[in-house]
């Protein structure tokens, strides 16, 4: 193996650049060459591929987004499209590939693996919704951004004695919501993995107001409903001075946290090591602070298991 291709695919996540840097520099350290593929699988098809070296990967560890750009490209599910991608890899003499993205991206990586190019998947998404890894690259950064926003909201909530329903990202996973709820001492948290009762939320708010706590933050995962919809449901139960806030794509950007930079660096280096051992078709994860691998195929049947202890703590410490 001489040349490794790297791409970022799906929604961007802080820390993707750190992973690109790690793959590039580790490859060079081992006497290999790295090739950046712009715009994920769409760029692969278009042959938007360039030699990426240590210099290009300088000063990017602290930058959010991805210098390789990203795209969602469902067309890659079609075999003729895959074969065109394979032609491009051959044209550039690329023998193996590292794909940084969510589980949609792993489908594409696996197809390349089936076509004879060893492929490694790194979990890059703010949602933390990939099975067999405790953390995905980008989750910690997005979480910190959400918590910072909630700290700001609490200031104004307290000044005006308001209740904020704050919607955070996560797609169908409640990870950002429940971790942010603990870290921002939210008064309640609503996630897709757990049923909720609006009457109960309202009763808690009332009893807390009666005890003198006149402002509140309710963290809502986007997979449940929108902040505005939830506020509408709560409105008939009392005068809570409701405001609905959606943090939105702010969570996707910004300088990655040290945790995400280190995670991405460890995973990127490990991916190159595994490729050098001739391995492919693997998804890299971290479990109990140890790097692990699972067959990408197994990921498609598995379900992400959120750490429900965090939810329990969020609930128990609220009010
Ligand atoms: O998967 C990352 C994510 O930010 C989700 O949290 C969110 O639901 C979705 O992507 C938003 O997608 P888009 O950037 O295409 O609007």
UniProtKB/TrEMBL annotation:
<feature type="binding site" description="in other chain">
    <location>
        <begin position="169"/>
        <end position="171"/>
    </location>
    <ligand>
        <name>substrate</name>
    </ligand>
</feature>
<comment type="subunit">
    <text>Homotetramer.</text>
</comment>
<feature type="binding site">
    <location>
        <position position="11"/>
    </location>
    <ligand>
        <name>ATP</name>
    </ligand>
</feature>
<feature type="binding site">
    <location>
        <position position="162"/>
    </location>
    <ligand>
        <name>substrate</name>
    </ligand>
</feature>
<dbReference type="GO" id="GO:0006002">
    <property type="term" value="P:fructose 6-phosphate metabolic process"/>
</dbReference>
<keyword id="KW-0324">Glycolysis</keyword>
<comment type="function">
    <text>Catalyzes the phosphorylation of D-fructose 6-phosphate to fructose 1,6-bisphosphate by ATP, the first committing step of glycolysis.</text>
</comment>
<feature type="binding site" description="in other chain">
    <location>
        <position position="222"/>
    </location>
    <ligand>
        <name>substrate</name>
    </ligand>
</feature>
<keyword id="KW-0963">Cytoplasm</keyword>
<dbReference type="GO" id="GO:0042802">
    <property type="term" value="F:identical protein binding"/>
</dbReference>
<dbReference type="InterPro" id="IPR012828">
    <property type="entry name" value="PFKA_ATP_prok"/>
</dbReference>
<dbReference type="InterPro" id="IPR012003">
    <property type="entry name" value="ATP_PFK_prok-type"/>
</dbReference>
<dbReference type="InterPro" id="IPR022953">
    <property type="entry name" value="ATP_PFK"/>
</dbReference>
<feature type="domain" description="Phosphofructokinase">
    <location>
        <begin position="3"/>
        <end position="275"/>
    </location>
</feature>
<keyword id="KW-0418">Kinase</keyword>
<dbReference type="InterPro" id="IPR015912">
    <property type="entry name" value="Phosphofructokinase_CS"/>
</dbReference>
<feature type="binding site">
    <location>
        <position position="243"/>
    </location>
    <ligand>
        <name>substrate</name>
    </ligand>
</feature>
<feature type="binding site">
    <location>
        <begin position="21"/>
        <end position="25"/>
    </location>
    <ligand>
        <name>ADP</name>
    </ligand>
</feature>
<dbReference type="GO" id="GO:0005945">
    <property type="term" value="C:6-phosphofructokinase complex"/>
</dbReference>
<dbReference type="Pfam" id="PF00365">
    <property type="entry name" value="PFK"/>
</dbReference>
<keyword id="KW-0547">Nucleotide-binding</keyword>
<keyword id="KW-0479">Metal-binding</keyword>
<dbReference type="GO" id="GO:0046872">
    <property type="term" value="F:metal ion binding"/>
</dbReference>
<keyword id="KW-0808">Transferase</keyword>
<feature type="binding site" description="in other chain">
    <location>
        <position position="211"/>
    </location>
    <ligand>
        <name>ADP</name>
    </ligand>
</feature>
<feature type="binding site">
    <location>
        <begin position="72"/>
        <end position="73"/>
    </location>
    <ligand>
        <name>ATP</name>
    </ligand>
</feature>
<feature type="active site" description="Proton acceptor">
    <location>
        <position position="127"/>
    </location>
</feature>
<feature type="binding site">
    <location>
        <begin position="102"/>
        <end position="105"/>
    </location>
    <ligand>
        <name>ATP</name>
    </ligand>
</feature>
<dbReference type="GO" id="GO:0030388">
    <property type="term" value="P:fructose 1,6-bisphosphate metabolic process"/>
</dbReference>
<keyword id="KW-0021">Allosteric enzyme</keyword>
<dbReference type="GO" id="GO:0003872">
    <property type="term" value="F:6-phosphofructokinase activity"/>
</dbReference>
<dbReference type="GO" id="GO:0061621">
    <property type="term" value="P:canonical glycolysis"/>
</dbReference>
<dbReference type="GO" id="GO:0048029">
    <property type="term" value="F:monosaccharide binding"/>
</dbReference>
<comment type="similarity">
    <text>Belongs to the phosphofructokinase type A (PFKA) family. ATP-dependent PFK group I subfamily. Prokaryotic clade 'B1' sub-subfamily.</text>
</comment>
<dbReference type="GO" id="GO:0070095">
    <property type="term" value="F:fructose-6-phosphate binding"/>
</dbReference>
<feature type="binding site" description="in other chain">
    <location>
        <begin position="125"/>
        <end position="127"/>
    </location>
    <ligand>
        <name>substrate</name>
    </ligand>
</feature>
<dbReference type="GO" id="GO:0016208">
    <property type="term" value="F:AMP binding"/>
</dbReference>
<feature type="binding site" description="in other chain">
    <location>
        <position position="154"/>
    </location>
    <ligand>
        <name>ADP</name>
    </ligand>
</feature>
<dbReference type="InterPro" id="IPR000023">
    <property type="entry name" value="Phosphofructokinase_dom"/>
</dbReference>
<keyword id="KW-0460">Magnesium</keyword>
<comment type="pathway">
    <text>Carbohydrate degradation; glycolysis; D-glyceraldehyde 3-phosphate and glycerone phosphate from D-glucose: step 3/4.</text>
</comment>
<feature type="binding site" description="in other chain">
    <location>
        <begin position="249"/>
        <end position="252"/>
    </location>
    <ligand>
        <name>substrate</name>
    </ligand>
</feature>
